[in-house]
Design a protein that fits this description.
This protein is an alpha/beta fold. Helix content is 30%, strand content 23%. Helix 1 packs across helix 11 and helix 7 runs parallel beside helix 9 (216-227). The chain binds NADP nicotinamide-adenine-dinucleotide phosphate. NADP nicotinamide-adenine-dinucleotide phosphate binds next to helix 1 and helix 11.
């Protein structure tokens, strides 16, 4: 493909936006022409916020509403908080711009489930049915044609990639799945808060969002599709005293007469042709340091009797956000899927 795709990034002054701009700087097919920030912030070069972007992206960042006026955009990445994302998506879709949304606004198929978990009414139910869930390795045919792409959540990506093939093949039971996930502090975004203060996070580890984290319904939705039956997983996230990375340790019951060879076969078959998923040997754990700053998901497992432990590691800002978004962009616009990502 010779002509570049003209794109904008809203939420460029956030952590996920910055990660995307770093990746886009090495993408030969994307022409980043406009950047958006939140209300009330100054218009200035993006390098004033992120000095590491100097010479990689030398354009000014302006209020996101300014982006709506551009008539040259073919795609927009929305690295915005939920609610702000659906308000912006509506505007871009009206103008025929393809949208890649980092937020949860279009991930849940049922707007009432969205309202229950996010505490706000869904403001764009008209576009919701058009949204394609962007778990690249499992929805590629739909992603190719998507005009509205719901980029998956970081924790859900780390959980669904290993479990979908195992549920589809009946290797594990859909009941009794327990997910223990741990994330680095960049998962909370750039806005300062007491819970994310260095002194609170450093040299500590704690669970949060027990039985109430917003990624639970997304995990249940996608695992339910794979199982062909409702899934009600126990999901407990933890805050790690590191900058980036997620490790999910998942406990599941094997189906009747299923063992480690079945687990390995299902995972290997599902991901034989997938560059960004790496299956480790039995008894080997996935590890954050091996995936940090990459778009890889590493998956390991161990079996004892009828019990399975799966470990899965990703970088929350890359495969969990900007990297997967760029992988989706590549699929949507016909680029080699690894472009800008390796
Ligand atoms: N961080 C992760 O690991 C991660 C992983 C997966 C998905 N996500 C999702 O990606 C999105 C961005 O996350 P983040 O961690 O990058 O958050 P962040 O660091 O807090 O950045 C949020 C961005 O949105 C802008 N913004 C805030 N309110 C806005 C509004 N009303 N209108 C327009 N722009 C607005 C902010 O601009 P100002 O700086 O000018 O306020 C900033 O650029 C969220 O939906 C998040 O759930 C994040």
């Amino acid at each position: 493909m010779s002509k570049k795709i003209t794109i904008a990034v809203a939420g460029a002054t956030g952590y996920a936006g910055r990660e995307l701009l770093k990746l886009l700087a090495r993408h030969h097919g994307a022409d980043t022409v406009a950047l958006g920030h939140g209300p009330g912030e100054p218009d200035e070069p993006i390098s004033a916020t992120f000095p590491d972007l100097a010479k990689l992206c030398d354009i000014d960042v302006r209020d996101t509403s300014f982006l709506y006026e551009r008539t040259d955009l073919q795609a927009v990445f929305l690295a915005l908080p939920h609610k702000a994302a659906m308000a912006a998506a509506k505007e871009f879709l009206k103008r025929g711009v393809r949208v890649i949304d980092f937020s949860a606004d279009y991930r849940l198929k049922d707007p009432l489930v969205y309202q229950k978990w996010y505490g706000v009414k869904h403001e764009d139910p008209e576009n919701l049915p058009r949204a394609v869930y962007g778990l690249c390795e499992h929805y590629r045919p739909q992603i190719r044609k998507a005009v509205l792409l719901a980029n998956p959540g970081c924790y859900p990506t780390s959980v669904t990639l290993p479990l979908i093939p195992l549920l589809k093949a009946g290797i594990i039971r859909p009941e009794g799945i327990i997910i223990d996930s741990k994330s680095g502090a960049s998962g909370g975004g750039r806005k300062p808060s007491q819970g994310m203060h260095f002194v609170e996070v450093n040299e500590s580890l704690k669970a949060y969002g027990m039985f109430s984290h917003r990624h639970k319904p997304e995990i249940d939705q996608e695992l339910g599709y794979a199982a062909g039956a409702p899934v009600d997983a126990v999901f407990t996230p933890h805050l790690l005293p590191i900058e980036r990375g997620i490790l999910s340790t998942i406990y599941a019951d094997l189906g009747r007469h299923k063992g480690p060879i079945d687990v390995m076969t299902a995972l290997k078959e599902a991901y034989a042709n997938e560059f960004f998923v790496r299956i480790k040997g039995e008894g080997v754990s996935a590890e954050i340091k091996n995936v940090a700053n990459t778009n890889f998901c590493d998956i390991g497992f161990a079996v004892s009797g009828s019990k399975l432990i799966v470990t899965s590691a990703i970088d929350n800002l890359v495969k969990g956000a900007a990297g997967q978004a760029l992988q989706n962009f590549n699929i949507m616009f016909g680029f080699e899927e690894t472009t800008g990502l390796v």
